[in-house]
């Protein structure tokens, strides 16, 4: 596939530009360590996951939402019998996560450097703005991006708004990301290009089993393969 | 003052378009009710406020940040001796706040209706995107706005970015809001217009004592007075 007439390339942030999901997995492990006197680890994980999902409409995405879900799940798991110090330790897990160093994924910087000569690059993320701005700052990747677009949900309607907001046609837009469900499928649906760069860990909620045959779709192993398409 | 050559009008959201701060005051009262066996109410309020301020760089603004600060403050106030049910009750305070109905301030809809015929209207807020989108939806004001701009901090640099992003000059931009510190002063600083509509309750952190003499500044009592300036 050679892609023509592109104007704007959107990049997902977490696990596309920098590593994120492994930190959530680590946090979940620490959470299980704190709670394992109450339940087997597998059940703790299920309880936390179901709390996160039921809280999504109210809390949205991001680490603060995750912290609140951990506290609620812990109270539930303990049968309302949770030592208050465990609440403090859960808060510490989240605070450490908010303060995590940013590890940029291999070749990302080189790719952005090349692409920004020809295209307007934006970050499209459903994370928390403060959090994502801090990560962008720490990552050293800020100079390559025109701006960050925060969306509450990555569905076709929000991508449509983004296209309108960027003042371009969908066919001038390409999205690069690690989630088929959030970064690729809704963009293909509105007529843009979608480049899937899988990351080794994907949050269960983002996982989909599907074969995509859209000619505007491509899956690559390494972000650097984008450069061969341009 | 007659304002000419305007293209875009930015509106702060909370306590400019709809009522917000009284709900935080109410939440603080409920928090004091829960904690008053540990400390006098005034000291509880001080402890909560100082926790919120010290958490701002890590948590940012919004109700989830407020919930986490309440929990941390409560653990501290209780001398690490907090019954776990109080944590649940604090979470309930926040959840109720997230689910609050939206009360649009008097005359706001009429003013937006008039202005949107001539100007592009945007919301500029440092709240949480999901939260603000939900409020905008509930308020019925969504049709009047081009989009929501979420900023992590309302300083001159972020307004400058916004102006660039909107593809206009600062002199084509006017900001309307209830906070001199966040909505007005930084906008005047970069050369835009600032219209201050004080709200009866202002969060202590937003309060400034200052006389502004900038010719691009005006303070009004009622949002409907904007229509006389155009």
Name its key features.
homodimer, 230 residues, alpha/beta, DNA polymerase, domain 1, six-stranded parallel beta sheet, 8 helices
What is the string of helix and strand elements of chain A?
A: EHHHHHEHEHEHEE
Q: Beta-strand percentage of chain A?
A: 5-15%
- Summarize the largest interface: chains and residue counts: A-B, 35 and 35 residues
As for the CATH topology of the largest domain in chain A, it is: Rossmann fold
Q: Rg of chain A to the nearest angstrom? A: 19 Å
Estimated helix fraction of chain A: 40-55%
Report the end-to-end length of chain A measured between terminal Cα atoms.
9 Å
Describe the structure.
Two copies of one chain form a homodimer. By secondary structure, the first copy, chain A, is an alpha/beta fold. Chain A has two domains: 8-18 and 103-229, HAD superfamily/HAD-like (Rossmann fold), CATH 3.40.50.1000; 21-98, Orthogonal Bundle (DNA polymerase, domain 1). Helix content of chain A is 45%, strand content 11%. The first copy, chain A, has eight helices and six strands, in the order βαααααβαβαβαββ. Chain A has helices at residues 21-35, 41-59, 63-77, 84-98, 108-115, 129-139, 156-166, 180-189, and strands spanning 8-11, 120-125, 147-150, 173-177, 193-196, 217-219. A six-stranded parallel beta sheet of chain A has the order 3-2-1-4-5-6, with helices on both faces. In chain A, strand 2 (120-125), helix 6 (129-139) and strand 3 form a beta-alpha-beta unit. Chain A is elongated and about 60 Å long. The mean pLDDT of chain A is 93.
